[in-house]
Amino acid sequence: MSAGRSMSSGGSVIFLTIFGTMTQVLGFGYRVALSRLIGAEVMGLYQLIMPVYAVMQSVTAVGLAAACSNLTSEHLALGNPRAVAQVRRTCMVWLVALMIPISAVVLTCSDPISVYWLGDARTQLGLMLLLPCVLLTGVENIHKQLFYGAGLVRTPAVVDLVEQAIRAAAVLGLLICFLPQYPERVVGLVVCGMVVCEIFSSCTMGLLFGRALNRWGRGGAGQPAGERRRRVLSIAFPVGVNALMGNLMGAVNAALVPKKLVESGLAQGEAVAQFGVVCGMTIPMLALPTVYLGAISLVLVPGLARLVALGQRRKVEEKISRAMALVSVLTLPIMAMMVVLGSDLGMLLFQQEEVGRYLAPLALAMALGCYQSVLAASLNGVGRQGTVARISLLCDLVQLGFTAGLVGIPGIGMGGFVLGVVVSSVLGLVLCARETARHTGMTFSIFQWMTAPGLGALLMGLTCRLLYQMLRDSGAGFLIAGGCTMAFGSVLYLSALHAQGVSIRGIRKG
Question: How many CA atoms lie within 13 A of 92 on its CB side?
């Protein structure tokens, strides 16, 4: 039985990209307003608790959500919607069961976690208030992945957009009403606003998916309870362990960076502020134009799972190849343009000169991470979740090693963290590429994926840098100079691709 009005893969990617762009722009505007209201130091405190939030999500919901996506796609392809309802019920029960011990640990140990792990007692209130947010986000993500597994992308995309608007209104409204406050209370206000928006999104997604199940009916043989639990666990466990280990090391890394910066000679407030600028401003700014990546990955995983279930291995290779080519021709010129315009853009948005300090290496790491993300999604789609977990764990260990070994050295500081980001991105890409070739048998099109768009992006970046500087020196403002530079750069890049025989239209339609 079909899931109903599902969209084609190409249509899904376009729709998700459009709505994702709107959501990301709204979210980025919210982050800009938030950073101006609370400042770099409190932004750093907020960035300290977010890895703990990610750790709790990885223990409770990340693996279950991945299982929902893969199994929903498989069951609907085989005409068994009754099994989808069973998977949903199993995952929701497990989510609540996992939240109980997690909540007990956090409430009991919030003081030592904030003081000894995160290194700042001012994170304690926000840490405790994260618990309802974790549960509600888990409910939302399980239903979101059920929709994506069914090929229904409209509902979660629209809910995401509304959720982002509610988050911005709730958080900024609370801050405007109650500021000024002590930093700990400011972080608590931000988390309270997050809880408000998660109440909306979790309730809405649950109700809408229930309606979708009623439309499909409960036909099909279903799945025996023992086999269902085994299948859910076989997907959720490696994905959850991967997320847990990665997020644990991310949390340790986030807590370690300010401590090591203090060792390098910075004051505590300055160290937290520098961490907040890089991880709360520069990296999100670079990630903003890559919104299409999430859309491609969300469509790719269930799409590959469906093809594997139907035994269509050749189409698996074609789908991965198209995704890699599309991400390549979009990501490289965007990162090149961000290097040209990023410093002035960061100053305009955040009023922080430090935003542009590590722009070039972080842009390189972001581009490599986009390749890695598509390959990791491909491995997840063909059932190699454990492989992705091992690669991710190794990369996180490398990043942690660079932070521990270099950030505390005077004169290196935050540069050691950035170098770790670049090296771990290179390692992750190489390992994911090797494993994808091994498990799918596909041959990589290096010229189409990297060489041609890389040369075009390099030419565009170098030329646009000169053009932008000339326009600025002649007195043009950022908007005029940046707009002219982007328009010229886009034409130059497309011309460079055409001269090398690469067609974006052909990639999109392929």
Answer: 14
